[in-house]
Structures are given as C-alpha cells and as structure tokens.
C-alpha cells in the first residue's frame, strides 16, 4: 500500500472533498460508508471515498487540514489531476459574477472543485442522468461497475472499475435494463460500441472551443446538448460549459430571465456571459446550492 497526504493550506483556496464528490458532477467515486449522495447539500465531511482509475485503486479522505490518500500506486499527482487541486479558486471566484445567488453559493460551498473524470465513465454516467436524481444516477453506475467492471483487491476489500467500452458493448440490452437503466440501456450499449470499435472516441471530440466539442459529443447515442455540456465540463476541461439542467433553468427563470433565449445554444451562451469566466465553476456551485434548498441569503 502507498500512502500520503496533501496539506490543504498549500492549495489555492483550500478544498472540500465532500462538496466536490457529492455535488452531482461525478458518479465514479464511492463513499466507503455506503452513504454517497445520501444527503443534499453535502460538505465538510471526513469520510473515505474510493475510485479505480487505470487499474489502480485510490482512497482519499479530508481530515485535520490534510487530504489523506491510500492507493495501489503513488497517487498524489493523479489526485491533483482528478480533483483539480491545482485550480486557483480565489482567481476563479474573482472572475465570476457577484450577485446574491452566486455570492451565497460560493460562500457556502467554498473549496468545491470541478473534477476531471476519465472520459468513458463520465460519458456513460451522464447518458444515464436523464430525468434522474443524483442518487439514482450513482446507483446505476455502481450497478454497472459491479456487473461489468474489473475487480481489484486492495487492503482486504474488492473494488470494481468502470466497465470498459468492450465490456458494455458486449452486454445484453435486457441485462442492462435489469440494472434499472430502462430506456437508457440501448444508448449505453450503442455508445460503448462506437468507442470500442474506434468509430467515435475521446480524441474525436476534443475540440478547442465548447461549441465544437458539444456538437462532436452529440455523435454518441443518447447525448444531447445538456449531456454534452456535462461531459465537456466534468471530463474534457471546458470550464466555460454550463449544462442547462432543471436547477440551472430554474435559476435562469428566477434570477436571470434576460438569459432565456428560446433555444439551448443561445440561452447557454447568455448564461455563460452572466456567470463570467470559468462559468462552469459558478454553475456547479449554484447547482449544489439550489439542490440543498438553502435560501439565497445563505440561511
């Protein structure tokens, strides 16, 4: 076992592990007390979380001013990438807009960072996200890992990796439905086939600008504008992406009505301008804040 820790005081803006991993942006980390997404508005906890990346198990928790980790490999550099520990949060906040909603969201969940999830796992997660609460999305991904993912034993426990494209491409659609994917089952299977065959892969959708990336991602089955923006933001590094989900559309209706332009592309462009540079960061803070049910004054 390899172990280590990162002093949170060394990170620009600090870090909140629970807010980051339970804010609806990733479904590839598991809270080891089996309480992932058990509560809305999660923040500040000290539970262990785990994930499997490239065949390596990584466990991490936040405690006593440290981000502690245990792994099958030297995981520190991987954690900096996966959890965006190198992002300068004060600079991102300085560039964002400063109305009452945005101020309250940043203040309450300060330390939340935008993940950089591995591409295929992120893609499948958000294909499964349509009309689903975050807890159900997480449960689907856990079921897929247990049914089709590689198993790895670490520290006396069994961990399951995200299924490979080949594994899901070979999956029976009825079996996928049994995992409660419902109508999403053929979308997942067909998208896995595209990646496994090389017909459409991560390298094909990495565009220099958000609009190019969004259109390329829509080549995957089950991917529309919102899912494409989620993958662009939470995997491909487009920090300007603002997925127009139910919560952000509610925010537009109540706080930014001038941004409602009648179609996804124009509304997305308008709210990105309203949120400011790195608008995806502001989107994620606002999403997590509104889901928590807090009042805009932070009470």
Could you explain the architecture of this structure?
There is one protein chain. This protein is α+β, with helices and mostly antiparallel strands. The chain has 15 helices and 7 strands. It has helices spanning about 15-20, 75-80, 90-95, 100-110, 120-125, 135-150, 165-170, 175-180, 185-195, 200-205, 210-215, 225-235, 245-255, 265-275, 280-290; strands at about 1-5, 30, 50-55, 55-65, 65-70, 150-155, 155-160. A 5-stranded antiparallel beta sheet has the order 1-5-4-3-2. A two-stranded antiparallel ribbon has the order 6-7. α4 crosses α15 and α5 (about 120-125) runs antiparallel to α12 (about 225-235). The N and C termini lie far apart (about 45 Å).
Tell me the layout of helices and strands.
Layout: E1 2-7, H1 17-21, E2 30-31, E3 49-53, E4 56-63, E5 66-71, H2 76-82, H3 89-95, H4 100-108, H5 119-127, H6 134-148, E6 151-154, E7 157-160, H7 165-169, H8 173-178, H9 185-197, H10 202-205, H11 210-217, H12 225-234, H13 246-255, H14 264-275, H15 279-292
Antiparallel strand pairs: 1-5, 2-3, 3-4, 4-5, 6-7
Radius of gyration: 19 Å
Query: Strand tally, please?
Result: 7
Residue ranges: pLDDT <50 for 5 or more in a row? none
Largest sheet: 5 strands, antiparallel
Helical/strand content category: alpha+beta
Shape: globular
Strand order of the largest sheet: 1-5-4-3-2
Helix content: 40-55%
Structural key phrases:
two-stranded antiparallel sheet, single chain, 299 residues, 5-stranded antiparallel beta sheet, alpha+beta, 15 helices
């Amino acid at each position: 076992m390899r172990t280590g820790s990162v002093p949170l005081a060394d990170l620009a803006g600090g870090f909140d592990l629970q807010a980051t991993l339970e804010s609806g942006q990733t479904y590839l980390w598991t809270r080891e007390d089996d309480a992932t997404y058990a509560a809305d508005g999660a923040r500040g906890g000290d539970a262990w979380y785990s994930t499997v990346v490239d065949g390596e198990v990584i466990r991490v928790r936040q405690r006593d001013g440290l981000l502690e980790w245990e792994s099958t490999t030297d995981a520190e550099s991987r954690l900096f990438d996966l959890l965006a520990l190198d992002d300068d949060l004060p600079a991102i906040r300085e560039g964002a807009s400063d109305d009452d909603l945005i101020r309250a969201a940043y203040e309450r969940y300060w330390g939340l960072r935008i993940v950089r999830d591995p591409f295929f796992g992120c893609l499948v997660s958000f294909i499964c996200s349509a009309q689903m609460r975050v807890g159900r999305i997480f449960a689907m991904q856990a079921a897929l890992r247990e049914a089709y993912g590689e198993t790895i034993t670490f520290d006396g426990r069994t961990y399951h990796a995200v299924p490979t494209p080949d594994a899901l491409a070979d999956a029976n659609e009825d079996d996928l439905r049994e995992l409660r994917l419902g109508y999403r089952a053929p979308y997942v299977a067909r998208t896995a086939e595209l990646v496994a065959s090389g017909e459409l892969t991560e390298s094909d959708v990495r565009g220099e600008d958000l609009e190019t990336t969004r259109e390329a991602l829509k080549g995957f089955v089950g991917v529309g504008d919102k899912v494409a923006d989620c993958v662009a933001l939470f995997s491909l590094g487009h920090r300007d992406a603002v997925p127009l989900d139910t919560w952000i559309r509610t925010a537009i209706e109540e706080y930014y009505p001038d941004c409602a332009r009648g179609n996804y592309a124009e509304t997305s462009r308008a709210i990105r301008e309203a949120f400011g540079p790195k608008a995806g960061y502001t989107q994620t803070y606002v999403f997590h804040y509104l889901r928590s049910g807090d009042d805009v004054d932070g009470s």
